Amino acid sequence: MVKIGVLALQGAVREHVECLAAPDTEVTIVKRTEQLEDLDGLVFPGGESTTMRRLIDKYDFFEPLKKFAESGKPVFGTCAGLILMSKEIAGEGEGHLELMDMVVERNAFGRQRESFETLMPVKDIGEDIQAVFIRAPLISEVGDNVEVLAKYGEEIVVARQGHLLACSFHPELTTDCRMHRYFATMVKEAKEQFATQAISS
Ligand code: GLN
User: Can you state the subunit structure given in the record (predicted)?
Assistant: First the structure.
């Protein structure tokens, strides 16, 4: 059993909770920093990254979230969640939590009415992952330690850096929860690794 939280300051929270639901996964809606202590993994949902950042500061989540990710516990960010994780935001300068070594461009696929849905291959996850893009960011640069898992045309849209996973689109707005199962497996593996380390130290 693993415990995965969904940060619930703003954005599409309930849809992630539904996609994560599985017999071996307990899902928590996170509204207070103390709840982080109990979790094995965390999801940053889509929404609006500037608003989310404001709420992160307002409710003193900044340091606890950084500490959570830096402890090696897996984090999965979708859309605005991906923006929160990036080291740099093109045209704006430094990022928010700066967890992943990459540069993002916000609203890179146009505005709300240019939202679209497609099927795309995501490495290690599936050949035909359902992806909904809504005012989505793209990843314009990645460091050597970041693995590109998917591109839409020339643009990087899914990336992984060890225990950190980020995607531009909204897998939670579809019935295809394979991205979430993949993340739950990352969480399970990290938890097992922590347990092994605890025994051998
Ligand atoms: N455009 C939004 C932002 O910059 C992200 C959109 C989304 O999460 N659907 O925060």
Answer: In the presence of PdxS, forms a dodecamer of heterodimers. Only shows activity in the heterodimer.
> Closest Cα partner for 28 from 56, 4, 10?
4
The binding-site residues of ligand 1, defined as CB within 6 angstroms of any ligand atom, are 46-49, 79-80, 83, 106-107, 134-135
The interaxial angle of helices 62-70 and 49-58, nearest 10 deg, is 100
Determine the distance separating the centroid of ligand 1 and the alpha carbon of 45, expressed in angstroms.
10
Q: Are 183 and 165 in contact (CB under 8 A)?
A: yes
Domains and CATH numbers, the chain: 2-200 (3.40.50.880)
What's the chain's average pLDDT? 96
Residues catalogued as catalytic: 79, 170, 172
- Tell me, in angstroms, the distance from the centre of ligand 1 to residue 96's CA: 14
Q: Looking at ligand 1, which atom is closest to the CA of residue 46?
A: 8
